[in-house]
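step 4 of 6: structure.
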Amino acid sequence: MVRRRVLIIDDEEDIRQVAALSLETVAGWDVLMASSGVEGIDRAASEKPDAILLDVMMPAMDGPTTFLELQKRRETVGIPVVLLTAKVQGPDQKRFAGLGVAAVLFKPFDPLTLSRQISDVLGWQD
Amino acid sequence: MEPSGLESTVSRSSDASDAAPLADRLQQLLLQLWMTSKSTIAERLDTISRAQILLEKNALDEPARLAAQNAAHKLAGILGTFGLPVGSELARQVEVLMEQASKPGLVHAGLLPPILEQLNEMINQKSAEIPSA
């Protein structure tokens, strides 16, 4: 099994902790974390994770803005980004899908299957 | 991982044949995380309760309404991950009501107390699942 490295960018401590616990315990992946868009961009550029799990609603720099910044940078443009959101209304979903992210996953997620969901949407077959 | 250190108490596994024990271990770790998260969850409920009281008095200002809407949104996102999907659904109802409350007179203040009561009950029950040390 390939040991993946995933960066979680979410301003909510409890979400970061549950997602990290899930990916570490269930899939054995390495997890990096950032609590803001700015911190996340820096970490993504320096650590070059295999994927980024990015919250939509964050203060200061929200998920879509963070994604667009990641796309502007040579070091991060190739990293697949999965948006994580508790917004389930149709117009929001359409807007997120139109951004060009790899996928959109919804909160609340199931900690037992989160890594499988990420693998599925990113086409990771390990 | 940089976070809680909880994972160090339980060995990792990704073996499919080990799925049931894996689920049990994950559940144990989630219960431990719940204990550290429940004060934040309680604060979010308090934020909503304060807004509900202001709404009853017809005195809900915009900062309080937005804070309650945001708190409800965060609860909707987290409760289900801790095994409380109905809690997430109820929190989502609160989020919608708080959004609607931006227009005066649209939300009946009496709608919120029963939802908050259910949420409180669920959260207390969840905490009661933790075996005492």
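step 5 of 6: annotate
 - DSSP finds four helices and no strands in chain B.
 - The domain at 39-128 of chain B is CATH 1.20.120 (Four Helix Bundle (Hemerythrin (Met), subunit A)).
step 6 of 6: archive
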